[in-house]
Amino acid sequence: MKFTLHIWRQENARAKGHFETYEIDNISADCSFLEMLDQLNEKLINDKIAHPVCFDNDCREGICGMCGLYINGRPHGNDDGVTTCQLHMRHFHDGDEIWVEPWRAKAFPIIKDLVVDRTAFDKIIQAGGYISATTGGVPDANNILVPKHIADQAMDAAACIGCGACVAACKNASAMLFVGAKVSHLNLLPQGQPEALDRARKMIIKMDELGFGGCTNTYACEAECPKQIKRQNIARLNRQWIGQMFGRDRRED
Amino acid sequence: MILDSKIPEGPLSQKWTNYKAAQKLVNPANKRKLDIIVVGTGLAGASAAASFGALGFHVDIFCIQDSPRRAHSIAAQGGINAAKNYQNDGDSVERLFKDTIKGGDYRAREANVYRLAEVSGDIIDQCVAQGVPFARDYSGLLDNRSFGGAQVSRTFYARGQTGQQLLLGAYGALSREIARGTVVLHERHEMMDLVIKDGRARGIIVRNLVTGELERYAAHAVVVATGGYGNVYYLSTNAMNSNGSAAWVCHRRGAAFANPCYVQIHPTCIPVHGDYQSKLTLMSESLRNDGRIWVPKKKEDAEAIRRGEKTALDIAEEDRDYYLERRYPAFGNLVPRDVASRAAKERCDAGYGVGPTGLAVYLDFADAIKRLGRDVVEQKYGNLFQMYQKIVDVDPYEYPMMIYPAVHYTMGGLWVDYELQTTIPGLFAAGEANFSDHGANRLGASALMQGLADGYFVLPYTMQNYLADQIYVGKIKAEGPEFDEAEANVRARMDSLMNIQGQHSVDHYHKALGRIMWEYCGMARSKESLATAKEKIAELEADFYQHVFIPGKAAEMNPELEKAYRLEDYFELARLIVDDATQREESCGGHFRIEHQTEDGETLRDDDNFMFVAAWEYQGHDKPEVMHKEELNYEHIQIVKRNYK
Fold first, then answer.
1. What is the pTM of this model?
2. Does the beta-carbon distance from B187 to A122 stay under 8 Å?
């Protein structure tokens, strides 16, 4: 297959970026989008015409959350329920023009080319996205029963890979689906109860502080999530937020 | 070099208890004066750093990805073993210990493995308390399933994403400590060298992968938890950035490297489909419960399939060779991993392989679908079938899957004693980066167990024992001739790579190295093939140093340079793997020497001459390494032959 690629090139966070156009030929329909970019880079190196394109990637099996490209206007491209590394070239037509951009959001500044800084997600988790269980001194695993449907719902939410597609898809660059998924995962479980309302409050405050936008319920995040995390998680998060406004858990920091 | 395994006194079941009772501790006020460096944020690194931080030590933790949550532990699917005996099916610490030693083909250290089994239950408690959403049954109790190499159900799981959930648990605990200020996170930083002062590990040189600048960090002790070296084969189930370099620079600085030839090759992976391919995806071993493995009986059929003129469905039942069922009637398709892998290679090498490249065999569910119905098969394996379809674009309900073995895990690694300390005082290694618990072959669902055992329940004790007298040395500063030398060394290495300015990409060489290793030091090895490997590696390495081309500068984000210095280490590592495989004149676990097999093709151990750990000492880039032996003494377990028939 043959493609015309328009790829966003940007030297660093301060530099001005632009689209650069490359032609690429002899691409197998069975190769993944990132393997296609590997071949482009190989060509750029061999021909010594330009520096290879920088893009984040690691596990290449859809679980690490490291890769994420905005392809023809959609995070992770035009297949549903997959990450960029799982997107195969058979989803394109021979001769297609493909536009490749990084995630665009105020809270995810560009580092170079298609690589963005997603440490804001780590900072949100550091604000409260965990259960404070110090190593050792915990009860036996079967001491606290967890109803199966609760464990299953928690697992549904916990499947988030933290790739940032939800933020990239959202016109407000909101992180509500990411935060909602983590809060749902932990707050559904009995082990998460002691810190539940505090957790929601701290994570939402941190999210706002880091420059993520608000949610206006268009659900582009849900539509583009490679792990198909449901928007119900946002509703749960909102309930927890309201709960902490009136709840007993509200504490001074 | 002296290899003192420091195994505590007493009967096996009392060793860890005795150790803990006698070990030295650090009082809480002194803990915050002690600094620890942890390299790697996978299960072992994240759990260790979180535990040190919670104890009150000051920790600097480093990862090469943009977030600790990306570490490749995240990709583990199946589950984690623990001797909880929740199923009342006869499990115990003793039984988990025995299964693990036997699974490792009697090449692991008894005391370490017993301790692993002993703390396995605590891991599950810890993870549940952190909110890991393990599978539960309708009563709300934890569910288990069984895995290879065991007769009990002791595997805890979170759907097909157990590694992800365990890592997110450890990442949560780590994040909490980062928020408390006990741990400082350095993401997108790669360890480039180890700094030794007065004979002790005292710091590291790291490269900031965003700016390309070198930075120095000092501490009272260093933990390396950077995973395995499977990517020496280029194509593996490892992540693209997984590499052996952090462990290897420690080896260069004097840490012994143990059993490098023990590499696990997993039989059921999606096959290679072209030169451009970057990695291989695992399909769970559980598929072999219902799938039947076959290739065509006639070469012309195989050739027609390779040319795309025929499909599997065109091959009549009597023209199919169910070679595992034929060769191993007792175990059939459920023979152990190494046997299944070797048998597939044998058929493909003989010209019976299918798929466009001829390097694939069929895993057929037609019988299972006929017997159980499509619904049942879908319930059992639906997610795997879907994953297969996404990658290969073939409906596995209709056409048989195509699979082929792939490099998956490395049992070898930095040599450590009972305290997980390497031969360099103050340098510890945890998780897949060390060699300690799996012998010559790792059992399924044991990697996650070992990573978390090391990080949560072993290092927090043994590190204190080391650090107890370090309160007297005061703060370690990142300065002095040792730091200068190490930094200059890294800079020189990078400059010389950048200056080659040849014409081939790093991947060009890495792919070639992978092909050599796979072909001559892969599933089946012989004296001749290993000699060939050695020769070819040397040729390729010489060519690399003359003709590699790295664009850009060292002082900027430069993924090609990262690949280049990692590949430099892979060349040395590949040579050592080959040397280790050459000296080990026996077959055991993942190491199969064709000269040493039984009449029916099983591994043939030589316990009289090879019941030892081979720990290698680095001598310099161009010199052969020196091997030291740690004899393995089995006091507790009775040694028997692994019989698969």
1. 0.96
2. yes
